[in-house]
Design goal:
5-stranded mixed β-barrel; alpha+beta; 224 residues; ATP binding; 9 helices; 20% strand; OB fold (Dihydrolipoamide Acetyltransferase, E2P); hydrolase activity; DNA polymerase, domain 1; Helicase, Ruva Protein, domain 3; globular; cytoplasm; four-way junction helicase activity
Length: 224
């Protein structure tokens, strides 16, 4: 099983890239979001990968973060959701958007993905809602991939060119994970904590950690 590839892009197509890994070319299918963010031909890149193996088919799918790869794995575990539908959902919402939609039970957001009907969208939410907190808490693992190829630094998949200094604010995935951990320590169930965190971020995406926890606690407070 191939779990990650680091190499240089030979070319980008409409639904995949050809990645040259020390002379061996790998066709890697990606979401529209990932493809749009990848650097151009000749640039170094690293992608987490998931392999689809069938009797008459062998395909690789690439993701810039472990969180996105895990969402792909879970989405394709839902009956009726194949790799194409999973990439369509990730293209439409991104991994953070998928987590929020599922945690909030917002199947209409899932349905917005190309080729995904209401029945499939409802099934995705129903089957993955209890699994959303674990994926959302993977914030610490969601850092973009960095590798070294022939002693040259390879930039992250979605950060072409020289890497800029990391911004001070934590990425949304890290905020979600830390907030979920804090609420869990306060005794809240993972599913209800995930729903509150997702709703709070949906209402105000600019919340910092303290503000996010306060907003989630207000949502979790018993209603009179």
């Amino acid at each position: 099983m191939i779990g990650k590839l680091s190499g240089r892009i030979d070319y980008k197509a409409t639904d995949h890239v050809l990645l040259d890994v020390r002379g061996v070319g790998y066709v890697v299918h990606c979401s529209d979001r990932t493809l749009a963010a990848l650097p151009g031909p000749g640039e170094a890149v690293a992608l987490y990968t998931d392999m689809l193996v069938r009797e008459d088919l062998l395909q690789l799918f690439g993701f810039p973060t472990l969180v996105e790869k895990e969402w792909h794995r879970l989405l394709t575990s839902v009956q009726g959701v194949g790799a194409k539908a999973s990439l369509a959902i990730l293209s439409a919402l991104g991994p953070d958007g998928v987590g929020r939609a599922i945690a909030l039970g917002d199947w209409n957001a899932i349905k917005a993905a190309k080729g995904v009907g209401p029945k499939i969208a409802q099934r995705v939410v129903a089957e993955l809602k209890d699994k959303a907190p674990a994926v959302m808490s993977m914030g610490g693992q969601s850092a973009e991939v960095t590798e070294v190829i022939e002693d040259a630094p390879v930039p992250a998949a979605i950060a072409p060119g020289p890497r800029a200094p990391k911004p001070a604010p934590k990425p949304a995935a890290n905020l979600q994970g830390d907030a979920l951990s804090a609420l869990s320590n306060l005794g809240y169930q993972p599913s209800e904590a995930a729903g509150a965190v997702a709703q709070a971020l949906n209402e105000d995406p600019d919340l910092d950690m303290a503000g996010l926890i306060r907003a989630a606690l207000r949502l979790l407070a018993p209603k009179e």
